[in-house]
């Protein structure tokens, strides 16, 4: 009986809430409809055509002599997949006289499926372009002897626009927002105030210019990040400029703790990925603890029968068996909460030369996002593995990717450090930047530079050779038999070249990044 | 004896490799030094001052009448933290007449530490600005009656520049690269070819203009993404435009499988985070399998004594105990390899109304990155939780964050869908975009809209109310006692408001995103 009354009571309560909720969720303002379909905005196309410099026929018949050296630098929109023809094939030849090799990437697919792959890639690329292209990328020319003075760059939505000009009537046209005046000047006639097309006229030129200083733009067709191309014309003259429309971008700041020396434990998290090699991992942890007893170590583990790794400042994550190398790296960095993350392989050993403070100092004082160190092999050879990466635009077949050993510049004030595009498996980086670029979990096995390729254009990369970590020997002494786990590890980590792994890699370069060719030395 | 010979042999081999390696790593070209220290480039500042429209004194004394309605829209660079003053406080008042409440965020810190926090935040923000600001953001004005014709936008490094003008001598100055000519025109004198400053002169105007068409810009001071401000002057006239310098951005394309209807299993991965509630999780999985038997489900689990969840297309990740809500979400999405990821809470239930194909269709046909659905409560009330988010610029104290229920536009062709800034906990999104924005693992407990705040300006968000998932009831019937796991869960998931969780949230909004105030209704 009581419970029945309770239920009734509840029912009533619920229905009241429901009605109120409905009442409230009733739209109180009318909303316009927006077209966000994947078509290039008409305005973009139109202005592109309008604005391209028209051929001047008086000029076209003036003779000239081409300079191949420079002309060859101009974007050809077409790249050929060729390396350097090989000389004699001595042992260590590649090491002594590094030659450029070229790898066509379509070979990752069967001839039968290739056409289908190209078709799909083209489709995906088209929609990528439609999503990423904004009117702010269109070429705009300021014409000579225009009486109009106007901003050509740097105007943001809801700023006031400044103009100056010398005619008595002027028309302004926007496409994604409305034009208003923040103040009215005497003796100026305003038409279309609050609309996308506004015209101003006056018999007094100064007044008209004064009025123009109060013209404002308000975005009405919402988009999180685009640009409106505003037209600005008077008798016979026309100018175009774009107004950036975007949400204020919020920073991602990290609290780096109180001032003084760098507190590595507060600033840095060490991230690694392990698979079977718990002995090596333990050596790494022990070596880290010798120098950084309280720095957090994040471990991603996709072993079949994972052992529990525990202890202070150790975070052990267990993945499904054999999920793979980049999946593990991506997991590890996804869990970092400090400003910086240090990537190490599970078979590295910290020594007195592994001074993380130095790497932190570089990132704190420069605009770099990521700085690599050096790895010393048991042989004593120390590697920084610096690579420059460049992209040569191609056509439908895709672009050409070029990787070369080397770097761009030495860094002022850090004689041991350089600016480059790719570094070795031992680096310190801004956590938010690494998380933005990410390690593509589709890369299951041998992979490394793929991360730097995905980071091109967003990662500012450096490399210092005076911060060194040791690498547990990889030279197998003939008379030392390999441990069981090492054997299994090798089987997974280093599959035969012809295997799926290489195919997956080239397949991704071909499809995901839309390359047709990779050349490297 | 034999092993000794072996060792010697090995030693020799190693030293040979070492020598060769050294030889090879010897720098073969000389590198310049670059200044990447965190200072604003002088050129940026200089041009900023130079280019700002100078006050015209003839104009300043023309009278005008301010229009507050519009003037108030102009960026004031200062925001006040105030909500709507409350009326009567009836039950459901907030639901019926939603009022705007304001939350000052500095309260997340003790008065004693606040000043120190502000100091640190200011420092971090300064370096963020130095890293993210490029000359391409500076305001540039095209002056009236200039004889120069030049590009004002859209020029990229290593493109050729087009000019036209009407004087016989012209100077061009770059700051991050060199100017060359791709061809030489008869009767034109070229000075400073291949340098940062080039001047051209000729007695024949057409020839000079022809020559200008062959002027090229080559970036020499490498930076992955910046802009060079090129000056372009002739007697008495000067123009400035910026050349974009950046690595070609590579797309991240996904192979969506062969054409035809949408293959949800090939396109979508379902990601969720669980903690203790295995019964609910199992209900979710069963309900999913009823409609999508082969779609992959990624589960992040930070329970203290994790049960193994296994089965076809199920990936179970085990985290350290209590790592938290966003850490789990970030882990789950870090493992997704399909084009789209669907976020669901572990207490959702799929029904016949949970048509993922509809959401896929919206993302495939529009430029949206993320589209939310609707969640139906046991009461029958269906919520989409649409929010618009805006940022009002403030000064040193930080910006003001405004969240309001509602949306921007209805989407053309999808009458049930709208464009907005934030949606409910049930959404389909482009995997690469979600991975870029990320779920900040520092948010351990109750958190959701923080993801959309971090995504402002990069995520294009929509919401459709015709794709519905059910929510396992949360109304606790008085006579049904709560299960043990539910109790423990509630303890962790919903800590008292005064607790660390809220402090952490407000602290992050204050420090990480640099807000001073949050207002919402």
TrEMBL record, chains A, B:
Subcellular location: Golgi apparatus membrane
Pfam families cross-referenced by the UniProt entry: Glycos_transf_2
GO cellular component, one term: Golgi membrane
Protein name per the record: Beta-1,4 N-acetylgalactosaminyltransferase
Stated family: Belongs to the glycosyltransferase 2 family.
Principal place of residence: Golgi
Membrane topology term: Single-pass type II membrane protein
Domain Glycosyltransferase 2-like positions: 270-433
A single BP term in Gene Ontology: ganglioside biosynthetic process
Top-level division of the source organism's lineage: Eukaryota
Subunit-structure text: Homodimer; disulfide-linked.
Keywords for this protein: Disulfide bond, Glycosyltransferase, Golgi apparatus, Membrane, Signal-anchor, Transferase, Transmembrane, Transmembrane helix
Taxonomic path: Eukaryota, Metazoa, Chordata, Craniata, Vertebrata
GO MF entries: acetylgalactosaminyltransferase activity
InterPro entries named among the record's database cross-references: Glyco_trans_2-like, GM2_synthase, Nucleotide-diphossugar_trans
């Amino acid at each position: 009986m009581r419970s029945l009354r309770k239920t009734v009571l509840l029912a009533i309560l619920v229905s009241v809430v429901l009605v109120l909720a409905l009442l409230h969720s009733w739209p109180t303002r009318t909303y316009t409809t927006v077209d966000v379909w994947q078509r290039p905005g008409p305005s973009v196309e139109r202005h592109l055509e309008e604005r391209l410099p028209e051929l001047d026929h008086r000029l076209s018949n003036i003779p000239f002599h081409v300079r191949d050296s420079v002309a060859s630098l101009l974007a050809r929109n077409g790249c050929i997949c060729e390396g350097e023809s090989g000389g004699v094939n001595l042992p260590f030849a590649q090491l002594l006289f590094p030659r450029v090799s070229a790898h066509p990437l379509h070979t990752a697919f069967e001839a039968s499926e290739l056409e289908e792959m190209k078709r799909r890639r083209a489709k995906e690329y088209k929609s990528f372009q439609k999503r990423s292209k904004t009117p702010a990328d269109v070429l705009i020319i300021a014409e000579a002897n225009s009486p109009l003075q106007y901003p050509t760059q740097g105007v943001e939505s809801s700023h006031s626009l400044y103009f100056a000009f010398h005619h008595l009537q002027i028309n302004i046209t926007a496409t994604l927002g409305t034009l208003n005046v923040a103040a009215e000047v005497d003796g100026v006639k305003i038409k279309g105030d609050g609309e996308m097309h506004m015209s101003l006229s006056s018999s007094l030129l100064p007044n008209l210019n004064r009025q123009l200083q109060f013209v404002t733009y308000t975005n009405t067709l919402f988009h999180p990040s685009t640009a409106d191309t505003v037209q600005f014309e008077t008798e016979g003259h026309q100018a175009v400029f774009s107004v950036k429309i975007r949400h204020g971008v919020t920073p991602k700041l990290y609290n780096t703790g109180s001032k003084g020396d760098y507190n590595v434990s507060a600033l840095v998290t060490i991230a690694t990925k392990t698979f079977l090699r718990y002995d090596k991992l333990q050596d790494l942890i022990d070596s880290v603890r010798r120098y950084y007893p309280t720095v957090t170590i994040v471990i991603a583990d996709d072993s079949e029968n994972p052992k529990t790794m525990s202890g202070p400042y150790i975070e052990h994550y267990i993945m499904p068996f054999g999920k793979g190398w980049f999946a593990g790296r991506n997991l590890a960095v996804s869990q970092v909460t400090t400003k910086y993350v240090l990537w190490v392989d599970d078979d590295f050993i910290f020594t007195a030369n592994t001074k993380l403070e130095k790497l932190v100092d570089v990132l704190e004082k420069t605009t770099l996002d990521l700085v690599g160190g050096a790895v010393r092999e048991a042989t004593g050879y120390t590697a920084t593995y610096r690579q420059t990466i460049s992209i040569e635009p191609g056509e439908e077949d895709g672009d050409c990717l070029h990787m070369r050993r080397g770097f761009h510049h030495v860094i002022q004030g850090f004689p041991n450090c350089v600016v480059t595009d790719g570094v070795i498996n031992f680096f310190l980086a801004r956590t938010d930047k690494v998380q933005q670029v990410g390690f593509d979990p589709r890369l299951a096995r041998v992979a490394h530079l793929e991360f730097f390729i995905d980071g091109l254009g967003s990662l500012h990369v450096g490399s210092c050779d005076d911060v060194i970590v040791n690498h547990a020997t990889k030279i197998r002494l003939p008379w030392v038999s390999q441990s069981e786990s090492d054997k299994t590890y090798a089987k997974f980590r280093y599959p035969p070249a012809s295997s799926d792994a290489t195919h997956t890699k080239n397949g991704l370069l071909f499809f995901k990044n839309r390359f047709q060719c990779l050349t490297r030395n």
